[in-house]
């Protein structure tokens, strides 16, 4: 029996488990997660109003109920279990631990109250136990730095009104917190031109179609022609983005000033500011009040700061500029890139990485399947060359270790109990009312 451990039950872990289970029939696959719940960012990153995207968990559910696959929740590799212990008990290890750390802006004022990372904010409104109790400071104005889909997700969630979120997957406390926030202005800040934005036109259209959004962008921030440096695969999306932005109110104001869309009662004003980078955040009484931006000069894909500055009055700053993985003791890690050190997915003999912890925080859920398919080929080729693999105990050995440390893993059946309890306590047409603390979930399945 080939004993396989996968660390992380997000999309990458699930995809690789699915493929290996089919390709190595005589295998037992143990899918570990530090949380008592499976599915990684599908549960705790994907926006709560995107229920169709979250529905991929149904496919993963079927995987977890298979006979040779075991979900082992509530086990953090690196604290509850060491890498050395894991290697002693498994033939093959795949690290699929994602990239949960927000990239830093590395500017003065980043530690002021009211400054958050997009990961923190999306975990907060998704009820992830690490951030569910964040209670972010929201008042009139929020600046979101970054031009990817995560930035748009956050802008959309912060602009939506109670009725538009009531049947989403957002937990009650977050919804109540947003209800009381009354955000009037959202600034979306991009380092380069609107043509360089990496968000998809579908996400942009969804945001701009909200009835309670009043959006505008300076016309001189939208290139007349698509710049040559935009790669072939991105050009169609960029064209669509520009067309959507051109259709907004335009202004003759100089681009050095933040544009002010018309304020209509009950609407959130959405300001697109492009070709600008954050240089510092200043505040009063330790609370962020002003975001300082420098205008950039663009030459191809290169943005160079000029000597023109913009000040934006804000209460909250959210950086949505990518994520890094968390290192795990004794596993080779590339701190500069924020990923595990690997060669085509291989960390060392019998140990591999896949998904965001391997290639960085790029790519949507299906991209992780492509990654998993390629990695499975490498793993199988390596395994076929393994002469006389030693006997490994797999989970029975791990289980003894965990018992000795009084650590209680959460099984797939335990997860089903948590899942059913969340579904049962949901009001309206919500899919579930999430438990937001691990202690609560563990008590429910007598594992506290
Ligand atoms: C805010 C946000 C919104 C997104 N929205 C979409 C979307 O709408 N559509 C889309 O297609 N893609 C979306 N994505 C991208 C998508 O979520 C990723 O492509 C995908 O989740 C990456 O999968 P992963 O398995 O590598 O990492 P993750 O999904 O992060 O899974 C990693 C898992 O590893 C576990 N783990 C971490 N460390 C340890 C440890 N030491 N021991 C045990 N377990 C550990 C974590 O608890 C987690 O469950 C979004 C991403 C973000 C950040």
UniProtKB/TrEMBL annotation:
Keyword set, alphabetical order: FAD, Flavoprotein, NADP, Oxidoreductase
One of the Pfam families matching this protein, by short name: Pyr_redox_2
Family that this chain belongs to: Belongs to the ferredoxin--NADP reductase type 1 family.
Record has NADP as a keyword: yes
Protein name: Ferredoxin--NADP+ reductase
SUPFAM superfamilies with a match to the protein in the record: Nucleotide-binding domain (SSF51971)
Protein origin, superkingdom: Bacteria
Residues that bind NADP(+): 147-150, 191-192, 203, 363
Cofactor(s) of this protein: FAD
Organism: Neptunomonas qingdaonensis
Domain FAD/NAD(P)-binding: 3-164
Positions of FAD binding: 12, 41, 77, 356, 363-365
GO terms assigned for molecular function: oxidoreductase activity
């Amino acid at each position: 029996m080939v004993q396989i451990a996968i660390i992380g039950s997000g999309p990458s872990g699930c995809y690789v488990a699915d493929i290996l289970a089919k390709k190595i029939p005589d295998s037992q696959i143990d899918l570990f997660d530090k949380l008592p719940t499976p599915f990684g960012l599908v549960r705790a990153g994907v926006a709560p109003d995107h229920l169709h995207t979250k529905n991929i968990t149904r496919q993963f559910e079927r995987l977890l109920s298979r006979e040779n696959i075991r979900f082992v929740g509530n086990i953090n590799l690196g604290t509850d279990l060491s890498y050395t212990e894991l290697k002693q008990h498994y033939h093959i290890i795949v690290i699929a631990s994602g990239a949960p750390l927000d990239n830093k802006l590395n500017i003065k004022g980043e530690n002021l109250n009211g400054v958050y990372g997009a990961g923190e904010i999306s975990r907060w409104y998704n009820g992830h136990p690490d951030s569910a109790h964040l209670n972010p400071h929201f008042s009139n104005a929020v600046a979101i730095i970054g031009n990817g889909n995560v930035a748009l997700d956050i802008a959309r969630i912060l602009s939506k009104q109670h009725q538009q979120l009531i049947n989403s997957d957002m937990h009650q406390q977050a919804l109540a917190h947003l209800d009381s926030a009354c955000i009037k202005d959202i600034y979306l800040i991009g380092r380069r031109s609107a043509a360089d934005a990496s968000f998809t036109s579908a996400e942009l259209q969804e945001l701009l179609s909200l009835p309670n959004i009043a959006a505008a962008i300076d016309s001189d921030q939208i290139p007349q022609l698509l710049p040559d440096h935009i790669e072939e695969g991105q050009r169609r999306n960029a064209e669509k983005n520009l067309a959507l932005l051109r259709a907004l109110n335009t202004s003759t104001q100089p681009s050095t000033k933040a544009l002010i869309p018309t304020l209509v009662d009950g609407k959130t004003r959405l300001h697109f500011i492009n070709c600008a980078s954050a240089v510092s955040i200043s505040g009063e009484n330790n609370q962020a009040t002003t975001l300082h931006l420098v205008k950039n000069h663009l030459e191809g894909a290169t943005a160079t700061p000029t000597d023109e500055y913009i000040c934006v009055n804000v209460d909250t700053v959210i950086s949505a500029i990518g994520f890094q993985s968390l290192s795990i003791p004794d596993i080779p890690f590339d701190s500069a890139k924020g990923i595990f050190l690997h060669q085509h997915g291989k960390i060392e003999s019998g140990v591999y990485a896949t998904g965001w912890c391997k290639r960085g925080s790029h790519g949507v859920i299906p991209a992780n399947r492509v990654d998993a398919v390629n990695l499975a080929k490498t793993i199988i080729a390596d395994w076929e060359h393994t002469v006389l693999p030693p006997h490994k105990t797999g989970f029975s050995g791990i289980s003894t270790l965990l018992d000795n440390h009084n650590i209680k893993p959460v099984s797939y059946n335990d997860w089903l109990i948590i899942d059913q309890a969340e579904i049962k306590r949901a009001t309206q047409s919500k899919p579930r009312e999430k438990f937001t603390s691990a202690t609560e979930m563990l008590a429910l399945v007598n594992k506290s």
